[in-house]
């Protein structure tokens, strides 16, 4: 079956809109949906304006923290494609993050490449590795796939320490941070923030377009019912593998940004705890939601430090309790909690 026939089949799977709903669209329901869409775009615009204004009002340390939120949000965008939209599981996403980070560090430290050139190269390297490691995803699922991805995250750290002449071994590599052009008038932390913001906006735009395309519908059909998707002509193995590759690409780009912002890479920064923390951040933020990665980035950045402040002796305990508390209050994540609030607001408008 050709690729065109396959995509057309996916399109046919979309439920038809009942005549009654179409007739009612110009009425109150249509007005409510239009109003909600307008408010969503207004919210996005306000958030973007606030994001552009914030680095000029915050102290450098806070600017650094919000820069790292954007870095983690880009990584979680990829993980969301794989887990939230692809229906697979990965406990090794931190390994792809490390590929991007170390790839960037090696290109800047040993090859002296311009830092802007390292971003597409690091993302491409992670994409190729993700494409290769996506082969098990076509044959495994559930706990078996989780164990394979966990093994990748486990053996990465000793592998990085092994090639000391390239990776710096346990001591890692120290690099100079990208400096802002003189014409910008920006400080170093502000320049890194806007660089990261630009990459994050591009990543969100690409993800949004991808999920609204035939590829996104195919991913959802595989996630919801793999057998039914195959009967309709969708190739589950192909889309599972591509989900891994796209997920790795975003993680590699995030790893590149991490190296720019931190200026240092070390094997101990990319242990299996990073992969678990990223997955926990995505679940707390909201699986399958466009807002989930951003909320998850806030969680990954601020909750561990908050746990350390609350109890320096056992930050892991506080971190775990906070995750439990959030999931008890919002089982579908923080994005789901916000979605329920919007739904309640819609119901109020419809009754008015």
Q: What radius of gyration results from the CA coordinates?
A: 21 Å
Adjacency order of strands in the biggest sheet: 1-2
The geometry reads as globular
The secondary-structure class comes to: mainly alpha
- N-to-C order of helices and strands: HHHHHHHHEHHHHEHHHH
Spans with pLDDT under 50 lasting ≥5 residues?
Answer: 1-26
Number of strands: 2
Strand content: under 5%
What is the topology?
Layout: H1 3-12, H2 19-24, H3 28-53, H4 60-85, H5 93-109, H6 115-133, H7 142-162, H8 164-167, E1 173-174, H9 188-211, H10 214-224, H11 226-231, H12 236-262, E2 264-265, H13 272-285, H14 292-310, H15 315-329, H16 333-351
Antiparallel strand pairs: 1-2
Helix pairs in contact: 1-10, 3-16, 4-9, 4-12, 4-13, 4-14, 5-6, 5-12, 6-12, 9-12, 10-12, 13-14, 13-16, 14-15
Explain what this protein looks like in three dimensions.
This protein is mainly α and 352 residues long. It has one domain: ABC transporter involved in vitamin B12 uptake, BtuC. 75% of the residues lie in helices and 1% in strands. It has a two-stranded antiparallel ribbon. It is globular, with a radius of gyration of 21 Å. The N terminus is likely disordered.
């Amino acid at each position: 079956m050709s690729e065109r026939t396959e995509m057309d089949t996916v399109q046919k799977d979309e439920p038809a809109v009942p005549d009654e709903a179409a007739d009612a669209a110009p009425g109150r329901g249509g007005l409510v949906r239009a109003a909600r869409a307008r408010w969503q775009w207004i919210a996005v615009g306000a958030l973007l304006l606030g994001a552009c204004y914030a680095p000029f009002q915050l102290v450098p340390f806070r600017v650094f923290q919000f820069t790292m939120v954007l870095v983690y949000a880009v990584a979680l965008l990829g993980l969301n494609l794989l887990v939230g939209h692809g229906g697979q599981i990965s406990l090794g996403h931190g390994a792809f993050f490390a590929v991007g980070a170390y790839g960037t560090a090696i290109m800047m430290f040993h090859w002296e490449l311009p830092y802007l050139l390292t971003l597409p190269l690091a993302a491409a390297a992670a994409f190729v590795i993700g494409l290769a490691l996506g082969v098990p995803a076509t044959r495994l699922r559930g706990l078996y796939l989780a164990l394979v991805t966990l093994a990748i995250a486990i053996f990465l750290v000793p592998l990085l320490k092994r090639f000391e002449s390239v990776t710096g071994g346990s001591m890692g590599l120290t690099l100079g941070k990208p400096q802002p052009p003189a014409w910008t008038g920006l400080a170093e932390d502000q320049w890194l923030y806007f660089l990261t913001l630009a990459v994050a906006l591009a990543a969100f735009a690409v993800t949004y377009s991808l999920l609204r395309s035939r590829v996104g519908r195919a991913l959802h059909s595989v996630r919801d019912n793999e057998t039914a998707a195959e009967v309709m002509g969708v190739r589950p193995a192909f889309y599972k593998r591509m989900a891994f590759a796209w997920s790795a690409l975003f993680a590699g780009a995030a790893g590149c940004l991490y190296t720019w912002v931190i200026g240092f890479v070390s094997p101990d920064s990319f242990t299996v705890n990073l992969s678990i923390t990223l997955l926990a951040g995505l679940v707390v933020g909201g699986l399958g939601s466009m807002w989930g990665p951003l909320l998850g980035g806030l969680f990954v950045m601020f909750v561990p430090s908050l746990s350390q402040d609350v109890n320096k002796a056992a930050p892991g305990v506080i971190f775990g309790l906070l995750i439990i508390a959030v999931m008890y209050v919002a089982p579908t994540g923080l994005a789901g909690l916000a979605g329920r609030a919007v739904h309640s607001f819609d119901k109020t408008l419809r009754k008015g």
